[in-house]
Design brief:
alpha+beta; 6-stranded mixed beta barrel; 11 helices
Length: 324
């Protein structure tokens, strides 16, 4: 019976870990930019000036519109955009491709909308009509929501995507300030750092290995304490030397703004925790648009997966612990 419980727990942990890794990878694909959100739509002059001064920006907004085909018409949510369609949608198509950067006559629609309009999901190459303008369906993306991704130049954009660069990773807040100054965009009402969500789900996805590392470390230290000199001191020296050698590589992976100038500066730790908390709270409380719901649900799902992983790890630890 004990072996059956251990085997089942290990199998469940493996399956849940695979699901967690896939969810983390999918979510990180959606998080490739800092999103600026505005309560009031940006003027056409502001958008035009920003594009001239800072090429590569993506503008978008969400609205509702009547979409028609030869036989059907339906009210659907629409993401109007100008720029990189992937930064708006946050996922690739399951059939066809997203419209190219300068494609103003192509669009992408959800699987739910494709079924409603055409009765099939294989509709790449077909046409639809929106406000007397015809668009060719370039691709179909997976979604249970009636949603269309339509290019447009004068949609009253309320969101701007700043695609990530290496500078953004090192100091996101300072990088956003530089981008705002360079583009001439006004100060946004919300700044959504999607990279924080991506980093958080990756940390949660690695919980089982972290848990196992902590358990093995304490177990090794407990056994090491029973050794005698010089074997104990030699092993301890080798371990500390390996940690010291690995520390620079580990610090190089972390963004510079998450590395304190003095590790004993407790005020820095408190301020950094507050900054991270505010950014996460802003993302969760900002009005949901476009890919926001998928990111939020993915983040909550990863938290639930992480909790199940910890429960299974603790179950295995208690089950495998020798009886004394």
């Amino acid at each position: 019976m004990r072996r059956a419980v251990i085997g089942l727990a290990m199998l469940l942990l493996l399956l849940i870990s695979i699901i967690g890794m896939r969810n983390a990878n999918s979510l990180s694909q959606r998080c490739r930019s800092v999103s600026l959100r505005y309560r009031q739509p940006l003027t056409t002059e502001t958008v035009s000036t920003a594009q001239q001064r800072q090429p590569g920006l993506t503008f978008w907004t969400q609205d509702s519109a009547l979409i028609q085909t030869g036989l059907h018409q339906i009210q659907s949510n629409v993401l109007y955009y100008q720029g990189d369609a992937f930064l708006v949608l946050g996922q690739d198509c399951c059939s066809g491709e997203l419209p190219a950067l300068l494609d103003t006559s192509g669009c992408a629609i959800s699987t739910a909308l494709a079924r409603e309009l055409f009765g099939s999901e294989e509709v790449a190459g077909l046409s639809l009509l929106l406000e007397d303008s015809s668009f060719t369906v370039r691709g179909v993306f997976q979604s249970s929501e009636l949603l269309a991704l339509i290019p447009r130049n004068d949609a009253g954009f309320t969101a701007v995507e700043l695609p990530y660069s290496e500078d953004a990773r090192q100091d996101p807040a300072a990088w956003v300030d530089v981008q705002l100054a360079a583009s001439g965009l006004p100060e946004p009402d919300w700044q959504l750092y999607t990279g924080l969500c991506s980093a958080l789900v990756k940390i949660l996805a690695w919980l089982p290995l972290t848990f196992a590392f902590v358990v093995l470390t304490f177990s090794a230290l407990h056994k090491l304490a029973s050794w005698t000199f010089p074997a104990r001191d030699a092993v301890l020296f080798v371990v500390l030397l390996a940690v010291a050698a690995a520390l620079p590589a580990l610090l190089a992976v972390r963004p510079s703004w998450l590395i304190p100038s003095r590790w004993s500066d407790f005020s820095w730790w408190g301020q950094t925790a507050q900054t991270l908390g505010r950014r996460l709270e802003t993302f969760l409380l900002a009005p949901g648009m476009g890919r926001d719901l998928a990111i939020k649900t993915g983040l909550l799902a990863q938290a639930g997966i992480g909790f199940l992983q910890c429960v299974l790890c603790e179950l295995l630890r208690c089950t495998l612990r020798p009886n004394t």
